[in-house]
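Dear H.,

Thanks for agreeing to be a second pair of eyes. The structure we're designing against is below in C-alpha cell form, covering all 554 positions.
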C-alpha cells in the first residue's frame, strides 16, 4: 500500500487514544454488520446548519458532519487516529517523482443511485473539480484551492498554477491521478471530506456545478441541496429546514459494515444550553462541543463525556488591508503581547487547553520552540504602540455568533475577553457580532471587511501544511498581506516528500511566520462530545470526523 518509510511516518503521526478509542467497544462480534433493528434511530444535536451537502463546496464542520455519513473518499483515517487506511481505494502507490498516484479501487461498490463506482467515476470527479467554471463556484471550493492551488482556468480566488494535471482510468479498478508537481500533502489530502467521490450520473442529472452569487449570498443547485449521492453507509432522505432536521437512512447496499441504526437524524440546535436541555429531555441522543463548565453536571446526570485530543488552533486573524497601522509589524506584535493567552485557555476553554506560540498543535511535525514568542506583556504592547504612532488605535473586531466550534466553545465570551485585553493597552475595539451562517465566514474570508476576527481550524490530517499552508500559503482576503518569503517557504515545505526534510522546512516556515505575525495563535484545546448512557460504539477522533454507522443504542 504505502512505502515502508512513509507508513512509519504516518504511524508517528498517530494520535494515541489507546485507552479511550470507543465507548462500550465490547459489543459482541455477532452484532457487527447486522444492521441493527429496523426502527432504530440515532438523533444527534448539531451546532449549526449545513451550507449544503456537496462535499466540494464545503469547508466547515457542521456541513461535513452529515456529508461524512453519506460519502466515501479514496483513503481515510483509522477510527480514533490520524493514521491512513483504505476507503474506496485499497492501495495507493506514488511514482518515484511523486507526480503520479495509482489507486487500486475496491470492487463491488455502488453509488446510492445504483450506478457503479469505478475508475471512470474517480476521474470524472477529479476532472469536474479541475474544470469547474465560474468565480462563484470556484470561490466555494476552499479545500480544493488550498490543495490543488489552481483550476484549468482560474476565475475565483485561486491564482496559482494547478497541481492537478489529469486522471487516467487504466481499467475499472485502476485510476491514475497525475500531477504537475509533487506535493507533500499527499497521500493524506486524498482523504479530505471535500474530495469525496460523487455519482457522475447524479452530478449531471442535478446540475451540480451551477453555483450562483448575488451580493454576499450563494445559491447552490439541486444536487447540493436535495440529491447528494455518494457511496457511504447512509443515504440522504430529507432536509426539513422549517423543523431544522436532516434525515439520513441506512444504505443496505453499502460495501462495508452496515450502519447499526436504520435512521440518522441531525437536529440543528444552535444554542449550546438548548442542546443540553434536549439531551436531558431525551429528544436527542448526543451532541458535540458541550461547554467545559457542563462536563461534571453532564456526567453526574449519567451521560458519557468523551474527550478528544487537542488537534486544533484558535487564532485572532489580522486583516492588514483596511487599516494602514496594521501593516506595521510592531502593531501586530503589540496586539499579541496584549493578550493573556494563559488566562484565556484557563477560563474560557476546556481543561487541557494550552496557550499557543505558533499555528500548529504541539503533536504535528513542524512545531518548534525556535519561533519568536510574544508572551503576555501589556507594558511591551503599550511601548510598541507608542513607537509605531498607533496610540488610540481603533479596530473593528468581528466575532461569530450562533455557533460552537471545537476550538471555541463560546466565541462571544472568548471575543469579549480578548477585547478587554486590547482595551487595557489602549486599543479601542468595536465588536461586530455576526451569525456563523449569516455571512460571517464570507465577510471575513472573502470580503475582508474586518480588522480583527476570531476563527480557528481543526486539522484534517497530521501534516503541517494542512495548518500553516492553509492559512498563509498564498494571498487571502482574510489576512490582506503579501509576503513572498513566507509563501515561498511554505511552497518549499509542501514540495518535500521525505519526513525529515518536510519537518525541517516547516519549522523554518513557522519561524518566519512568528516573526511576521500575520495573525495571532491563541490556544489549542481538547473538544468533547457527549452522548447518553445507552449509546455505544461511538469512536471519538482528534479530527472531529466521527462516523456514526458504528453507533448502537440500548
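And this is the sequence the design step returned. I haven't edited it by hand at all.
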Amino acid at each position: 500500500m504505502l512505502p515502508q518509510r512513509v507508513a512509519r511516518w504516518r504511524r508517528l503521526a498517530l494520535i494515541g487514544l489507546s485507552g479511550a478509542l470507543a465507548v462500550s467497544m465490547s459489543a459482541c462480534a455477532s452484532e457487527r454488520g447486522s444492521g441493527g433493528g429496523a426502527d432504530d434511530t440515532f438523533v444527534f444535536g448539531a451546532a449549526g446548519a449545513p451550507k449544503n451537502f456537496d462535499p466540494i463546496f464545503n469547508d466547515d464542520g457542521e456541513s461535513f458532519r452529515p456529508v461524512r455519513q453519506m460519502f466515501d473518499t479514496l483513503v481515510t483515517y483509522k477510527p480514533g487516529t490520524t493514521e491512513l487506511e483504505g476507503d474506496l481505494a485499497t492501495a495507493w502507490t506514488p511514482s518515484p517523482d511523486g507526480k503520479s498516484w495509482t489507486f487500486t479501487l475496491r470492487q463491488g461498490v455502488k453509488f446510492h443511485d445504483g450506478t457503479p463506482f469505478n475508475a471512470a467515476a474517480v476521474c470524472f470527479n477529479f476532472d469536474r473539480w479541475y474544470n469547474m467554471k465560474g468565480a462563484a463556484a470556484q470561490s466555494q471550493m476552499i479545500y480544493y484551492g488550498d490543495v490543488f492551488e489552481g483550476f484549468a482556468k482560474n476565475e475565483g480566488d485561486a491564482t496559482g498554477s494547478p497541481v492537478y494535471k489529469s486522471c487516467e482510468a487504466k481499467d475499472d479498478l485502476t485510476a491514475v491521478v497525475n500531477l504537475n508537481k509533487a506535493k507533500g500533502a499527499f497521500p493524506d489530502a486524498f482523504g479530505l471530506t471535500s474530495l469525496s467521490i460523487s455519482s457522475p450520473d447524479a452530478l449531471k442529472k442535478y446540475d451540480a456545478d451551477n453555483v450562483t452569487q448575488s451580493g454576499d449570498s450563494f445559491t447552490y443547485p439541486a444536487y447540493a441541496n436535495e440529491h447528494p449521492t455518494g457511496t457511504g453507509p447512509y443515504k440522504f432522505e430529507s432536509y426539513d429546514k422549517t423543523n431544522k432536521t436532516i434525515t439520513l437512512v441506512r444504505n443496505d447496499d453499502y460495501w462495508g459494515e452496515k450502519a447499526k441504526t436504520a435512521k440518522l437524524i441531525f437536529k440543528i440546535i444552535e444554542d449550546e444550553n438548548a442542546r443540553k436541555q434536549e439531551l436531558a429531555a431525551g429528544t436527542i441522543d448526543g451532541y458535540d462541543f458541550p461547554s467545559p463548565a457542563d462536563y461534571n453536571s453532564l456526567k453526574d446526570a449519567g451521560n458519557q463525556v468523551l474527550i478528544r485530543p487537542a488537534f486544533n488552533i484558535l487564532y485572532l486573524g489580522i486583516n492588514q488591508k483596511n487599516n494602514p497601522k496594521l501593516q506595521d509589524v510592531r502593531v501586530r506584535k503589540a496586539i499579541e503581547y496584549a493578550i493573556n493567552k494563559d488566562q484565556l485557555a484557563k477560563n474560557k476553554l476546556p481543561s487541557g487547553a494550552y496557550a499557543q506560540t505558533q499555528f500548529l498543535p504541539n503533536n504535528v511535525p513542524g512545531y518548534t520552540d525556535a519561533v519568536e514568542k510574544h508572551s503576555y506583556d501589556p507594558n511591551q504592547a503599550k511601548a510598541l504602540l507608542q513607537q509605531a504612532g498607533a496610540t488610540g488605535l481603533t479596530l473593528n473586531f468581528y466575532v461569530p455568533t450562533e455557533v460552537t466550534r471545537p476550538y471555541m466553545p463560546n466565541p462571544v465570551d472568548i471575543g469579549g475577553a480578548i477585547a478587554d485585553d486590547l482595551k487595557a493597552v489602549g486599543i479601542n475595539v468595536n465588536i461586530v457580532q455576526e451569525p456563523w451562517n449569516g455571512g460571517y465566514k464570507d465577510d471575513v474570508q472573502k470580503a475582508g471587511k474586518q480588522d480583527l476576527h476570531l476563527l480557528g481550524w481543526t486539522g484534517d490530517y497530521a501534516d503541517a501544511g494542512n495548518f500553516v499552508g492553509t492559512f498563509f500559503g498564498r494571498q487571502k482576503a482574510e489576512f490582506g498581506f503579501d509576503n513572498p518569503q513566507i509563501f515561498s517557504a511554505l511552497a518549499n515545505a509542501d514540495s518535500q516528500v521525505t519526513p525529515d526534510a518536510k519537518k525541517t522546512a516547516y519549522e523554518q516556515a513557522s519561524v518566519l511566520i512568528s516573526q511576521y505575525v500575520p495573525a495571532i495563535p491563541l490556544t489549542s484545546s481538547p473538544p468533547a462530545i457527549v452522548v447518553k448512557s445507552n449509546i455505544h460504539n461511538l469512536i471519538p477522533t482528534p479530527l472531529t470526523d466521527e462516523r456514526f454507522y458504528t453507533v448502537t443504542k440500548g
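Two observations from my side: The longest helix spans residues 499-516. Residues 61 and 405 are 8 Å apart (CA to CA).

Warmly,
E.
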